[in-house]
Structure formats: structure tokens, C-alpha cells
Amino acid sequence: MVIDLSGKACLVTGASSGIGNEIARRLANSGADVAVTARNVEKLSQLTEIINQNGGNAIYFPVDILNEKEIDSCVNSAYKKLGKLDIIVHCAGMTIKGLLQDMQPTDWDTVIDTNLRSAFSLARASWKYLQRPEAEQNAKFLVIGSVGSFFGIPLSAAYCASKGGLVQLAKSLAVEWASQRINVNIICPGYIRTPLSESVLKIGETYQKVLSRIPMRRIGSTEDVANAALFLVSPLSDYITGTTLNVDGGLMNAAYTMDN
Amino acid sequence: MELLNKISVITGGTSGIGKATVIRFAEEGAKVAFCGRRSDQGKQVEKEINAAGYPGQAYFFPCDVSIEQEVKEFAAFVKEKLGNCEVLFNNAGIHLAGKLHETPPQEWDRIMNVDLRGAYLVCYYFLPQMLEKKYGTIINMSSVSGLLGDTEMVAYNTAKGAITNMTRCMALDYAMDGIRVNAVCPGITRSEIVEHTFTSIKGAEEKFKAAYPVHYIAEAVEVANAVVFLASRKCDFITGVNLPIDGGITAHTGQPYMGTY
Lengths: 260, 261
Hints:
The structure holds two protein chains of two kinds. Chain A is α/β, with parallel strands linked by helices. Chain A is 45% helix and 15% strand. Chain A contains eight helices and seven strands. Chain A is globular, with a radius of gyration of 18 Å. Chain A starts with 8 loop residues before the first strand and ends in a 13-residue tail after the last strand. The mean pLDDT of chain A is 94. By secondary structure, chain B is α/β, with parallel strands linked by helices. Chain B has a seven-stranded parallel beta sheet with strand order 3-2-1-4-5-6-7, with helices on both faces. In chain B, α1 links the parallel β1 and β2. In chain B, α3 packs parallel to α4. The longest helix of chain B has 29 residues. Chain B starts with 6 loop residues before the first strand and ends in a 16-residue tail after the last strand. At the A-B interface, α5, α8 and β7 of A face α5, α8 and β7 of B.
């Protein structure tokens, strides 16, 4: 099952680090042209340099994902530069931790807008480029959810609300866009080692607690998530739409796990 | 090649999704033992696949998954002929329509024996091989009918619902043994039986197409591709998942589209 994405044009948000970074590199390795976005210009330029040095084709657009106009112009520029857009992978995400009653409304808005509203803006901006006639291969719109899409996480109400919202956004978009041959799916990773999760996982006690809840007893890697992403943006999954794929070592099916 | 030399077992491999998966596995370099009830057809499929020049190899063994002794013999055949099974696609199944009061006990038992107890038996006899190897991946055949309800299909949906939850529980039990357990949940998929339904019931194909958001019916290979993915090392962190391959139908509440209002 060689996933060959040569000739495909992709846009990846949240590509400066973690899962987005991994997915961008793997898309490029599979032959796709990749436009990457995030806020951090330095990291984006490093990423594109690595991809281009390895024989890939990457361009970057610094974008503040909270700014709808910037998303619009980024999508339009990516389309112009790459000549088309076939695959969108939305990985941008963040959290601000705190008890709900202590949370400032502006912080709530920042989390919801970064994680959820951004997906709306991205979908809105890219739709016109993604519709496909029957003779062509399907376009793909993939978003990244979380264990927080289904479970409550302490100090993370805004994060969980935004990630839960993404699941229903993906399902609704899938139904609306099905006849235009745009597949919309969501990957919900469990605990994956990324800069975002590192802060939680580096606390010894929390790490042990988290680990004890994962049936496979290991934290996932960004490669684990990228493998699933590649499948869901490839022609191998053309009949899969509106689906949630958990990449979680069994976590979200476990009421509790067995003792070691 | 994703499954090079992987010792693989596919039940119900003589037609439909099963046959398409045997072919995809052979393309990926696997050694595939497949079973079915129809001996002549099984041998024919075996010949056809091995003549096609795929990197893998197919081996047919006649076996009805609802008969314990035959499953036991199939497991022994695989172990002796190829070695311990590493990939198991529990595909064999039958379908039954009707409301509960129209389903006589012997018909209820028949579908439970094939769809649920058959999957259990195959797992029961192949799991020791995986446990010995401390490696394995099982893909069960559930269905969209194992995730949600359907009209006048109570026995089938009950059996498939049980497969969905059996998959989750097995994933937990074997997570630390290097054995992943997932299921595929196809919607309607082109096969001999489905084509027969389409020709015998007027308008059926159009109704199905209309019900699916993508407005087309899956080919068997589209399900087989998902099975290859779940069988591969590409998803070592994925276990306990019931993956729909359903053109978006389970994403839909089912409410009619009334136009923009």
C-alpha cells in the first residue's frame, strides 16, 4: 500500500510543530506539493527548507489563524502558487489551562477561535477550490480532533468544547460536501508526544496516570498520527467520509485497563 | 509492499469483500490462507489469484466458520502450511431481513452462529498463534448496521452490534500482547448478493444511492483498502476502532434536506 500523492497540492495549518509538522513532511515525502502555515515564520522557513532539501516542494505562508482575512488570502495564495488545492489538513490548535469559573472570556474566545472557528474559516475559504467533477479524484479535508472531542479534561473546558465541535463540524461538512466529492474526516489522537502535550506529560505523576489509562501502555508518536492522516487523504479512502478515526492505543474504548 | 510475507487469514474469501481483500493482500505480498463454504469456487479463486502473478500467494481451505471442528482444522492447516497467523480478517457473514416476530428461532440462531459465534470461533482458534508470536492484528467485519439501527434487520444488526463491542473488548484484553483488534464498518458495497438485490427489487439501487451522502455505492476494493491499512504497520497505535467505510451515511442524522430556508 504505497501512498503516492504525486501531483497533489496540499495545505497544512499548524505546521510549525508537532502533528502538523510531521504531517507536512510526510505529505511531501509522498510526492505532494505542500503549502504550510502557522504563525512562527522561523519554524516555517526551517520546515520548508528541510522539505525542499530532501527533493520535495514546499512553500510557506505565515498566518494568524484567528484572522479570517489572513486565512482567505493564504488559501488563495496557496492555490495560485501550487496551481490547485486537493488536500487540506487542519492541525492548528492550542489550549489555555484553567478552571472555567476563573477563565477570562477573552481566553475562552482565543481557544475556541483558534481550534474551531479557524476550521470554519478554512473550509469557507477553500471550498471553491476543492469541488471535483466525477472524472477527477476526490478532494480531502481533514481535521485533527482530540481525546477531548469525547472526554472531559480538567482545566480544559474550552479546549474540549472546541474539539467536540470539530467532530460535528466534520460530520456536517461531510454530508454537505459529499456530492461535490470532497471527503471530510477527523482524526482524534489520544496522548501523543508533541510540544503541546509535553508540558502535561513531563510531570511524572501525571505521566504515570495517563499511561495507566492507555491499554497499549505507551504514548503515541506524531508518526502514528501522520500514518493515519496519509491514509485519509489518499485515494484509498474515497468512500470514507464524516468518520472519526481514533489513534489512541485503545484509550477511548477503555472504561479502565488491566493492572500491569 | 505493506504485508510482505505476512501470514494472513481471511474468512469468507471466495466472493465479495472477502475475495477483493484476498487479492489486495496478495498484491501487498502476503501469504493468504482464505476459507469459504463453496469448495469449487474457493479453488477457482485460488487458481485465479495465483495465476495473476501477484507477489503474494493464496491458499484456499474449505471451512464453514459456524462449524467448530472445521475452524479448528483451518487453524491447524494454516499453522502447518504457513506458520503462526499474523493477520486475521474475520470477514465471513450472512444477512437476514425481517422484524423480530417474523424471525423464527432457527433463523435467529443461524445468523448468530455465522456472524457472531463464527467470528468468536475463528478468534478462539487463531489467537493462540498470535499470542505465541506476541504479534498480531485482527480486523473484524462489522457494518454500519453494527453502529446504528436499520428497519427490519433486527437479527443482523444485533449480531453486528455484538461484533462492534467484541472488537473493543478484545482490543483492551490484548493491548499488551502486541495484538491489535479493529473492525471495518462498511455501508452498502457492491457484491453478488447486492447486485442480485438491485436486479430483483425495482428501484433499490436508486434508493440506496439517494440515501448515501456521496450518492454512489462502494466497490469491494474500497473496503479491502481499509482492511489493508488496518492490517499494516502503519497503524501500530490504532486499536479498538470501528472504522466506517460508508460514504458518510453514519455522519448523517437522516433528516431530509429541505433546501435553504
